[in-house]
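Students often ask why we bother predicting the structure of a whole assembly rather than each chain alone. The short answer is interfaces. A chain on its own may look different once its partners are present, and contacts between molecules only exist in the joint model. In this exercise we take two input lines together and write out one structure for the complete complex. Read the inputs first and try to guess which parts will touch.
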Amino acid sequence: MAAAYFVDEPGLRAFVDALAGSRRVVAPVAKRGKFEFGELSSANELRLDYDVTILPPKKVFFPPVQPIVRFSEDEVSSCTCAVDTVLLGVHFYDVKAIDQLDYLMRENNADWDYLCQREATTIVASNIQAVSPRAFWDSVGTNVEPQGHDAFLTKIGDGYVLETRTEKGEALVSYGSFREAMPAEVEEARAVNDAVMGTCPERLEYTTDEIAEHIRDSFGDEKLWDELAERCFSCGSCNTVCPTCYCFDVIDSWNLDQKSGTRTRYWDSCLTREFAAVTGAGGSKENFREHHSSRFRHRFMRKTTYLNEKLGGPACVGCGRCSQACTADIADPVRVINTIMERTS
Amino acid sequence: MSQDHTNDHECQCGHESLFLPRQAKILHASQPTASEKHFTLQMIDGQPFEFEPGQILEVGVMGYGEIPIGIASSPTRPGTFDIVVRTVGRVTTAINTKDVGDTLTVRGPLGHGFPIDKLRGKDVLIVAGGIGLCPTRSLIQYIMDNREDFGRLVLFYGARDPLQLLFTEDRVQWRASKVVEYHETVDRADVHWTGNVGVIPTLFQKVQIAPETRVVICGPPVMFRYVIAELDAIGISRENVYVDLERRMKCGVGKCGHCQINDKYVCIDGPVFTYAEIESLEEAI
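Now the answer. The structure tokens for the assembled complex follow.
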């Protein structure tokens, strides 16, 4: 199953065009000076030289807005339906995030509104050609290897090495004019991927376990968390761009006939004010995380400690999206984690 | 040129959405208080509906949404099941406009209920405040229907005032019953009230409770601390105290995140926890 192939630059374009002609291909494309995962109609749009995308690729299987149940006067029906998709050009940190979502959506109660599209998707990871300004993926959860990809594409010299990892990945090879890669080319691909490690502009100075222990122990230090979260606007931008966040809301809407409609799930944010609020007697509210610092703290507990045992590492992959998205520039996990570590060590 | 890869066909994977509800028909509806409605429901699909006392349902009306709610009747009385819904918001208002013959959507049962195995053979004290009597009624009925399997059954029930008291018929029966020691109180009496006045913890002065008793608590968060203080004074281990927690549960299946208490999901790890389990969780009470 595992094999390595080589294709030159024009060959890669022909391969991508052939793939896009056969099914939906979602890959990094330019968007107003930044990048996003978008549906490719031609290889000309493909930007494998991206640094990071605005939203993570989880949106392919976990869309920001997803119909889950349709209803009419007499019946309710499921909306799970999948489109054969190739998700191309995923950086390793986003593959690690997808691995986490795969686990969390499957555990306890398998969420087929996620898993159907996940199973219908072939993931081709790619090497990091440009490093984003707030990235720290080379110093977070370094013991966790990316798993859930079907092939890995690495740019070397004047071409690309495609290493297939699964049958689904191998099945893509027939769409291009690949030849078997020479050992030196495979070696060069490895060197390219090794060389990018250590190039991130931000860095965690502590191990996953050290961080988990200290952050968990800091829970009761309200002064510390108030200070770290002081300028939080509760806007939820950090959640919205996070590749490992998966909280959602479920909201019903009616069609114009006022008889039928849709139950839809929307990405939700644990930083927003009402997230943990329940309505009580007489319309009173009980908010179980009323203060913005307790919501800010909850997010960091989730990312650094709560899920570690299940996931084998932290629920943060170091993409740096939250750091870039945060209006007040306080969400940066490197800032928060290093501050707590320095204060408590 | 953009290509249309959309797929209008139903998914062939054969898996069902976690969010697809069943339909239940309202067989009986009554309004015990100004804001609460008591429904007796039956699944329309005719398939079995099995649950344990203390488990929850996501009950809803399509077009409005769902709410998490404890089942208010016991599985020992199969065929139908009860819920009591308090009108507090959009969804509960939509549910409470429904009447006999209408349908509600139901998903579940969800979560872990009361640990019947741990209660069996033991004295059981149930402390229910306000609408907290609804999920515990499931356990009360269960114990009464399997009476010889359990020791002494003591029930404390408190409400804000006499008009808020639920399950009038049940209370008449419990008062007369030899198999349950029933004590009720109201925070504020009215002119017709001749019973106890005071918050629930005051009932502890009226009844002798043994330290080995297993205790179940369900009610508003403010009640917990005072009840726990009474239990501590008796010497009841916090391992033997079970609390039924309320949170916002959107999905009920451990995904959506709304009901999290630290690293626990109330919907799948609970809603029933031992007090020992949750006292180490900073966000629990």
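Check your guess against this: Residues 221-234 of chain B form the longest helix (14 residues).
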